[in-house]
Amino acid sequence: MFKTAIKSAAATIALSMALVVSVNMGLKAQVTVDVAKVTCNQFALYKVASPDTLAIWLHGYYSGKRDNTVVDVEALKANMRRLRNYCVQNPDVNLIEAVEQLLKP
After folding, report:
1. Domain span at residue 15?
2. Which of 35, 90, 91, 104, by CA, is between 20 and 30 Å from 51?
3. Residues 9-37 pLDDT 10s
4. Residue 9 shares a structural domain with residue 43
């Protein structure tokens, strides 16, 4: 009887572990974002992804276009705040257009 209880408990634990693993695998599904289609509203209100994540991606994208391999962390944070403020005031503007507007000299 004791051996049966141990086998039953082991089977329950194994089944539980299998369910946890399968659920976690489903949660880690890849999500892609076409940044060219993101609006300021979606950016500012976390509707697509974290604004920090998108801002870092945008920084890398535009730095790559300029062959700039230097990251000024404080400038990145300041630019992200500027972009977020711009987007709050202009929610219908495309995010890429907003960045290009802010990058104008």
Report:
1. 1-29
2. 104
3. 444 554 444 444 444 444 556 688 999 99
4. no
